[in-house]
């Protein structure tokens, strides 16, 4: 039987069918749904971990204990999990361990465009790259088999288009062989130098064995498809789909389902058959570099970009020199930049910061949108957790101005990697003010629970970290809680933190307005007779407010009655009720 699956959903189905028992992940677009779908299978122990390093280590521990295990993350998450990954490649596994990483060419929702294939090469870990949902399901099952066959973690790499597109995949029953026996084996699992030296030799031999396996087609993971031999295309993942659609039978294809390690003879033989060979791959010249290293002349990044996503039309244009007619829709889609939602609690906090005219060390989450105009209140954004540590660095460099800057960080991001920065502030004593924007959820990635929310991945009650107690426990005595819907209180709370001696934590607490459990006030309207067209209410950048015929208007279908705008209106023109 076949079913229509989102790529991420198909991976989850693959986990189920492969008898995977433990899933531990940290959310990150475009990987998040894999774990959400996995959590729907009662047979799988699923969890949101505090960060990707923890998730990867949980999966490692489960695999060593004998359970097929899995963790998922977005590309930048693999930076966080790189430490356990590189050494888990040395120890190998007991039961299969699979790591999913989802890259985001085009940066639909990421701060950079890194190519995770380099991690496979760097950590010497086998990497598979599916091109549609059927392959997502199949490769997930194969990844567990290969993990056990070669005694290695196996990485599955997706890109946004594969993770978030739907296509059909055949389904099968779950096969769970139970827990594999664990045998104590320090030479294998205790990576001190004496043992690791021996394991490095094993890893290098493993790669040679894997290359030999890939030369033979890797049981159908690497496939050759001969049509016209004028054009040869070496490709993988979504680029294979684009190439097929753009070039059809005008080209022959070498599709690499296993992108690390790469075969040598298979590529040489394919290239020898074709007149001109193109490498089609988004992001870096990863396959292209390998081809050049083994002496194959190919056209790659000379003709195609290192940036953004590819498409059928781009490939048709470059290789065939013509437009791909089937892709012309004639529809011009208006770009819609992201904004803080109507009723978002982060809005009031940023407005208060604007009034206080502080420098803001920013972080990653919905609140990054505080950088957009008209708020424009973020000075730096680097990676998760960096707001807190970078603020400490700023204040260490310029202590005289320490109380003119703050860090902003969400609840999930604080737990992910902000808490270590806060410990550093307390320990190495800078006068830093850290604002935790506690909206009781991981908002940016679509409402995942986290260790502060009091619920687990299934929405069941769970232990909740007390941010106040945590801040005090690491040595921050001055902890202030404010409600960002109350502008005066918020401004006052931050001002107090800035004026007091020593470091402080301000918790800006108000649940995300989109949470189902949140009750909203009635929508607001502008009384046109009282509106003086001063546009003060526009200064908070609420998408529900606009100007019409010289007066402010509130779209009642968007307004959640947060009342932040009414606190700005000196003329009392904003009232309850539909306009
Ligand atoms: C290392 C890493 N992992 C995951 C992500 C994806 N991501 C972006 S923001 C975010 C969490 C945001 O939640 P929170 O800090 O609670 O702020 P909110 O969006 O709710 O305001 C996540 C998981 C990322 N950018 N980097």
Q: What would you report as the Rg, rounded to the nearest angstrom?
A: 27 Å
Ions, cofactors and other bound molecules? thiamine diphosphate
CATH superfamily annotation of the largest domain: Thiamin diphosphate (ThDP)-binding fold, Pyr/PP domains
Helix count, per DSSP?
18
Describe this structure in words.
There is one protein chain. This protein has 579 residues and is α/β, with parallel strands linked by helices. The protein has four domains: 2-215, Thiamin diphosphate (ThDP)-binding fold, Pyr/PP domains (Rossmann fold); 222-324, Rossmann fold (3-Layer(aba) Sandwich), CATH 3.40.50; 345-509, Rossmann fold, CATH 3.40.50.970; 524-576, Alpha-Beta Plaits (2-Layer Sandwich). Helix content is 35%, strand content 18%. It contains 18 helices and 22 strands. The chain has helices at 7-17, 32-39, 52-65, 75-91, 117-123, 133-150, 160-163, 186-189, 193-215, 237-247, 265-273, 286-293, 312-320, 345-356, 386-397, 411-427, 467-473, 487-499; strands spanning 2-6, 22-25, 45-48, 69-74, 97-103, 126-128, 154-159, 166-170, 222-225, 231-235, 252-256, 258-260, 276-280, 359-361, 405-410, 433-438, 478-482, 504-509, 524-526, 545-548, 551-554, 574-576. It has a seven-stranded mixed β-sheet with strand order 3-2-4-5-7-6-12. Helix 10 (237-247) crosses helix 13 (312-320), helix 14 (345-356) packs across helix 18 and helix 15 runs parallel beside helix 16. It is globular. The mean pLDDT is 97. The structure holds thiamine diphosphate.
């Amino acid at each position: 039987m076949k079913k229509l699956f989102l790529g991420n959903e198909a991976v989850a189905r693959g986990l189920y069918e492969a008898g995977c028992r433990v899933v531990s992940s940290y959310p990150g677009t475009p990987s998040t749904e894999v774990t959400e779908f996995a959590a729907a299978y009662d047979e799988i122990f699923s969890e949101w971990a505090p960060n990707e390093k923890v998730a990867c280590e949980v999966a490692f521990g489960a695999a060593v204990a004998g359970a097929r295990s899995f963790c998922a993350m977005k590309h930048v998450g693999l930076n966080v999990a790189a430490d356990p990954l590189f050494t888990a490649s040395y120890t190998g596994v007991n039961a299969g361990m699979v790591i999913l990483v989802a890259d985001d060419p085009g940066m639909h929702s990421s701060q950079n465009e890194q190519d995770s294939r380099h991690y496979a090469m760097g950590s010497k870990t086998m990497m598979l790259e599916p091109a549609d949902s059927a392959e997502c399901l199949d490769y997930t099952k194969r990844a567990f088999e290969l993990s056990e066959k070669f005694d290695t973690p196996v990485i599955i790499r997706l890109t946004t288009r594969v993770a978030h597109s739907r296509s059909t995949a055949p389904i099968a029953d779950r096969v769970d062989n139970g827990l594999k026996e664990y045998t104590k084996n320090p030479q294998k699992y205790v990576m001190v130098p004496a043992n690791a030296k021996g394991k490095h030799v094993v890893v290098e031999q493993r790669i040679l064995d894997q290359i030999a396996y890939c030369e033979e087609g890797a049981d159908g993971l690497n496939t050759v498809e001969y049509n016209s031999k004028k054009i040869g295309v070496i490709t993988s993942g979504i680029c294979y789909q684009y190439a097929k659609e753009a070039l059809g039978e005008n080209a022959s294809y070498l599709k690499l389902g296993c992108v690390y390690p790469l075969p040598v003879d298979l590529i040489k033989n394919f290239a020898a058959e074709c007149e001109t060979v193109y490498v089609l791959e988004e992001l870096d010249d990863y396959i292209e570099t390998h081809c050049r290293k083994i002496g194959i002349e190919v056209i790659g990044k000379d003709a195609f970009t290192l940036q953004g996503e590819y498409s059928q039309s781009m490939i048709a244009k470059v290789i065939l020199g013509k437009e791909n007619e089937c892709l012309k829709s004639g529809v011009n889609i208006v770009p819609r930049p992201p904004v803080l939602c109507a009723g978002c609690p982060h809005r009031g906090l940023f407005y208060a910061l604007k009034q206080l005219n502080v420098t803001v060390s920013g972080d990653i989450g919905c609140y990054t949108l505080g950088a957009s105009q008209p708020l424009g209140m973020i000075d730096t954004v680097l990676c998760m957790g960096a707001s807190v540590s970078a603020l400490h660095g700023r204040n260490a460099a310029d202590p005289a101005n320490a109380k003119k800057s703050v860090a902003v960080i969400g609840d999930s991001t604080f737990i992910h990697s902000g808490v270590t920065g806060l410990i550093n502030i307390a320990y190495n004593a800078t006068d830093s003010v850290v604002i935790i924007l506690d909206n009781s959820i991981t908002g940016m990635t679509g409402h995942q629970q986290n260790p502060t929310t009091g619920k687990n991945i299934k929405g069941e009650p769970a232990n909740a970290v007390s941010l106040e107690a945590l801040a005090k426990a690491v040595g921050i005595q001055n902890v202030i809680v404010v409600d960002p819907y109350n502008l005066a209180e918020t401004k006052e709370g931050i001002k107090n933190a800035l004026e007091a001696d020593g470091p402080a934590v301000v918790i800006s607490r108000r649940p995300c307005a989109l949470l189902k459990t949140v009750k909203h006030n009635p929508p607001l309207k502008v009384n046109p007779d009282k509106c003086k067209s001063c546009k003060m209410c526009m200064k908070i950048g609420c998408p529900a407010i606009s100007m019409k015929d010289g007066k402010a208007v509130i779209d009642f279908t968007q307004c959640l009655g947060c009342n932040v705008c009414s606190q700005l209106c000196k003329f009392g023109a904003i009232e309850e009720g539909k306009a």
